[in-house]
Specification:
This protein is of the alpha+beta class. It is built from 22 helices and 20 strands.
Length: about 625
């Protein structure tokens, strides 16, 4: 074969091999394209859409909170807000400085804005101010050309029409904490708020509702270009209906005034909490738009602790309000009978220790009802000397002490009902008789809340195991047909204790009001004072130390439990005034007025005639009250 032929043959073979390689490459590429476009096409299309389409969350409208008659305690109202988009502002500091000439921006708020800018992408809006007046909002809109990056918006924010009166019940709203920002996408929305206390916090999931979504097309850096259908609207949060009576709640707060106090009033039959006041209070509306540093520090430093919900979270010795429970425990265990008498000479000796009665000269010979009426410490010392602390603790628990009722607000405490097991478990020691004597007059390790005192009073009044209710329903008809089992207590023994509590409000009783007309509704109750400062025997006998002469923080706590009407109880109350000195002169008048007001409102709504009370009649002649008692000694 000639050289030309060999050269042609070699060229043809190489061309064939090259063509084969090209064909194989094209086949491989084609098959890969087929696999990607046809077989895996849907998956890669979805990935592409995720890069191109972003979901944006739509904040739901928050549910409202109503009292028992449908009056709003927490609602939503129009909120004028200002945001800043950092990437659109030439210089953030200059823009904020110019904005600060229109909107008041303190250093704390500016620092918060700077932290938010550093934490999120530059094209995401940051809340600068909210809760603006229409006038300020309009000024910002007028100045928008000179405020690069500033945008305005009108949304909804939380509003409490009677905030100070219901603050500890409904709670308040505030921005999510930084540690919680990544727990929910909603928390990253500009201006989004969450419940921080009370019902707002406890029912956050129900009140918040369900977020909606909208699909938006974004570019490579995540900036929104346009919205794409479909949009899923947010679902409004559920409403909460309470057992609370707003009229009675406002009256209670008015009567508590500036005292450091907690008061609860319940319906004896249903257990509905009609009023639950904690004083002093605060305005939850301040937290909605961001409370100032000065106001926050003032709340923290106030010795009266305005942020604590005293009816459920305040723990105090019950003082002599515990004596009805002590009387029932003694009657049930057979230590005393209704006609058992003891002589009070002003003190009781146990070994080398002397336990004093609040009345240093004594009460003389008294029976059980008179011991309750006059709050005789010595009578209960002598009874306690023959009793077992476990029997006393068991009776206290039957009447709601040491229980957590879970009424829907956070921070509820169970208190402490001491017994032998508690002493051994916590203090690794045995129980001593002297401790029983202290417990018998509501002192020692015994601790209760005003809510527990109110329930104790309601159970004494009705003889049933009443359970308190604050939240009646979530977006539905309230359950008003509640019934309770009878207490495991002899009804005859309850009758004796009730009679003693009625005598407390009569002439010779520790809470007798000689101004109260005879035609007024009869009430029953028990005063108490929980000792803070130990008073020596010589000081007590000589009268050198008087509660009014002591510094506020060293005065005794004043307590009262009661119910009305005495013959057919409808409402019951428990009240504590911190460092109020005397239960009879400080706590009892407030409780009397609360019960009168509750019955007055009920009669008005039922269209029945109203009884004559101290509010509608002048003073009447009667026996002046005895000296204020209940200065128990350890």
């Amino acid at each position: 074969m000639s050289r030309e032929g060999l050269r042609y043959q070699t060229f043809s073979r190489r061309a064939f091999l090259l063509a084969g390689a090209q064909g194989l490459a094209l086949a491989t590429l084609g098959s890969r394209l087929y696999y990607l476009a046809i077989i895996e096409g849907d998956q890669y299309k979805l990935r592409a859409d995720k890069n191109r389409i972003s979901l944006r969350w739509i904040a739901p409208e928050r549910g409202e909170i109503f009292d028992r008659f449908g009056r709003k305690l927490a609602t939503n109202r129009q909120d004028f807000r200002v945001f800043l988009i950092p990437e659109q502002a030439h210089k953030v500091t200059d823009t904020l400085a110019r904005l600060g000439r229109i909107v008041q921006l303190d250093d704390r708020r500016l620092a918060r804005v700077e932290r938010q800018i550093k934490r999120q992408r530059k094209f995401m809006p940051v809340t600068v101010a909210q809760g603006l007046t229409w006038k300020t909002f309009a000024r910002v809109n007028v100045e928008m050309p000179s405020l690069p990056g500033v945008v305005t918006d009108s949304g909804l924010s939380r509003y409490y029409p009677d905030g100070i009166d219901v603050a500890h019940i409904v709670g308040y709203m505030a921005s999510p904490q930084e540690d919680d920002m990544n727990t929910s996408p909603l928390y990253q929305l500009p201006g989004f708020k969450v419940g921080r206390q009370g019902l707002e916090r406890r029912y956050e999931d129900q009140l918040r509702g369900k977020a909606g979504t909208r699909r938006v097309e974004v570019n490579a850096v995540g900036r929104e270009i346009r919205e794409l259908p479909p949009r899923q609207d947010a679902v409004r949060g559920e409403n909460i209906n309470l057992a609370l009576d707003l009229d009675l709640q406002k009256f209670t707060m008015e009567r508590l005034g500036e005292e450091a106090a907690g008061a609860v009033l319940v319906d004896v039959q249903s257990g509905d909490i009609l009023a639950m006041g904690s004083s002093p209070s605060f305005d939850p509306n301040e937290f909605t738009n961001g409370i100032s540093h000065e106001n926050w520090q003032a709340l923290l430093k106030d010795p009266r602790k305005p942020l604590i919900n005293k009816p459920v979270a305040g723990l105090y010795p019950p003082g002599s309000t515990f004596k009805p429970i002590m009387a029932l425990a003694a009657l049930e265990s057979g230590v005393v009978k209704p006609d058992t008498t003891h002589y009070c000479n002003g003190s009781f000796q146990l070994g080398s220790h002397t336990f004093h009665c609040w009345r240093h000269r004594g009460h003389g010979r008294v029976n059980l009802e008179q011991a309750i009426q006059q709050s005789c410490d010595v009578y209960f010392y002598k009874v306690a000397a023959d009793m077992d602390i476990d029997n006393i603790a068991d009776m206290a628990r039957r009447f709601g002490l040491g229980a957590v009722f879970d009424v829907g607000v956070d921070g509820e405490k169970e208190g402490l009902v001491p017994d032998r097991d508690w002493k051994h478990r916590v203090m690794h020691d045995q129980w001593h008789l002297g401790e029983t004597l202290n417990v018998s007059i509501g002192q020692g390790a015994l601790l209760v809340t005003p809510l527990q005192l109110a329930i104790m009073s309601a159970r004494i009044a009705g003889g049933n195991k009443v359970w308190p209710s604050l939240v009646r329903s979530l977006d539905g008809e309230p359950d008003t047909n509640r019934s309770f089992l009878p207490l495991d207590v002899n009804p005859l023994h309850l009758k004796v204790v009730r009679r003693g509590m009625e005598m407390v409000m009569e002439a010779g009783g520790t809470a007798h009001d000689w101004h109260r007309p005879k035609s007024a509704i009869r009430q029953a109750g028990k005063t108490g004072s929980a000792q803070i400062k130990r008073i020596t025997k010589s000081e007590r006998q000589t009268g050198i130390i008087k509660q009014e002469d002591l510094p506020w923080a060293e005065r005794d706590h004043a307590l009262f439990i009661g119910y009305a009407p005495a013959d057919a109880p409808e409402v019951a109350t428990g009240i504590l005034v911190q460092h109020g000195a005397h239960g009879g002169s400080t706590a009892a008048p407030i409780a009397r007025d609360m019960m009168d007001k509750a019955l007055e409102l009920k009669r008005q709504r039922e269209g029945k005639p109203l009884p004559i009370t101290t509010a509608t009649a002048g003073p009447v002649k009667g026996t002046p009250p005895p000296p204020d008692p209940d200065g128990e000694a350890d």
